[in-house]
Amino acid sequence: NVEPRSVPVFPWHSLVPFLEPSQSG
Amino acid sequence: SPSSPVVLPPFFMRGSIIQLADGELKRVEDLKTEDFIQSAEISSELKIDSSTVERIDSGQSPNAVLIQFSVGELKAQVCVEVLVEYPFFVFGQGWSSCCPDRTTQLFELSCAKLCVGDVCVSLTLRGLR
After folding, report:
1. Looking at the predicted complex, does its ipTM rise above 0.95?
2. B65 CA to chain A: closest CA distance, Å?
3. Residue B58: enclosing H or E segment and its boundaries?
4. Other Cβ atoms within 10 Å of B83 Cβ, number
5. Residues A1-25 pLDDT 10s
6. Phi, psi at residue B76, to the nearest 5°?
7. Of A4, B34, B52, B62, whose CB has the highest number of CB atoms within 10 Å?
């Protein structure tokens, strides 16, 4: 019997950066 | 000052499961530009921006680069410091980084070379002027 293994699922918006104008400078 | 280099998150590892806004599950290596665009359309809080790479310089930290983006219609200038292997999603091209070989080596994620002029997918909160 195979132990059930939880696979992480990541939300789509975590893969692309938030580029807010306040980050510059 | 630019944000500190990002420690590489696990979800860029080939085979990672990504959930789109409509609930569909996809592997990170199978994502397409339309997936991000459709997910942002469904999302009530997030908006997709086109962020053009304007400059790439060596970063202050070892193994890092400083990337200057021109973000959205207002072309706001945003500068971020990331590790050379950090992948960005380029419209119509897919995952791209400043050191694609290293990205592939670390994540087994096939990756193109990120260049000045590339237009990357980025997010902002809806309603932010």
Report:
1. no
2. 15
3. strand B46-58
4. 21
5. 667 778 899 999 999 999 876 544 4
6. -65, 140
7. B52
